[in-house]
Amino acid sequence: MQKLVLLRHGESVWNKENRFTGWTDVDLSEEGFAQAKRAGQLLKENGFTFDIGFTSVLKRAIKTMHIALDELDMLWIPVGKSWRLNERFYGALQGLNKAETIEKYGEEQVHKWRRDPLEHPPAITEEDERFPGHYLRYNDLTYRELPLTENLSETMNRALPFWHESIVPALRQNQKVIICAHGNSLRALVQYIDNLTDEEVSNLDIPTATPWVYELDDRINQIRHYYLK
Ligand SMILES: O=C(O)[C@H](O)COP(=O)(O)O
Fold it and tell me: Can you tell me the distance from the alpha carbon of 32 to that of 43, in angstroms, rounded to the nearest whole number?
């Protein structure tokens, strides 16, 4: 049996302001920094150690990982970063206030944008400053991989290759793994690991910076999972 820890980043400035964030690279809020520290302390108190970490290319996740590892005095472990673990790309909703968007488009439409696996949020254009093609960190993406919008099923389709090609091999080598990512990229991984239906996963809300421990058997099937609190 081995343990895998999933960690959603600490509260970000835009979480606090209730804004759609997606790939916008906003920082942690003051509370987010404190949450990340507490997550690291909890892991330490419960005797966790890690051989390798994986995170996105967004600073709210990178910093949460860094702060948690610092608490564990394990900043030296290798940490792989991939855009495939990024939050889902929220298209033209990125930056908008969630409550104002509900007022404008109605609860039902906004719920669909947020949780319907096939519903695309309104797209941006390539001229938009939010287009990832303008940013150095996405230089290695192919043109087709650069999103203008992304539904949850597409988030899952781009996250899973990273799970299979990078995370599973580490687990198979019995490495102790921590993944620090985002609400929707973690939801995608959990849907796959737990074989959840779209409806089951849509009811899943992952709290910020709360270590979620998965106990896995030799075939990477989950035995049980629980939050460290
Ligand atoms: O990108 C965001 O706005 C959040 O991190 C996730 O938002 P959601 O829960 O509305 O999908």
Answer: 17
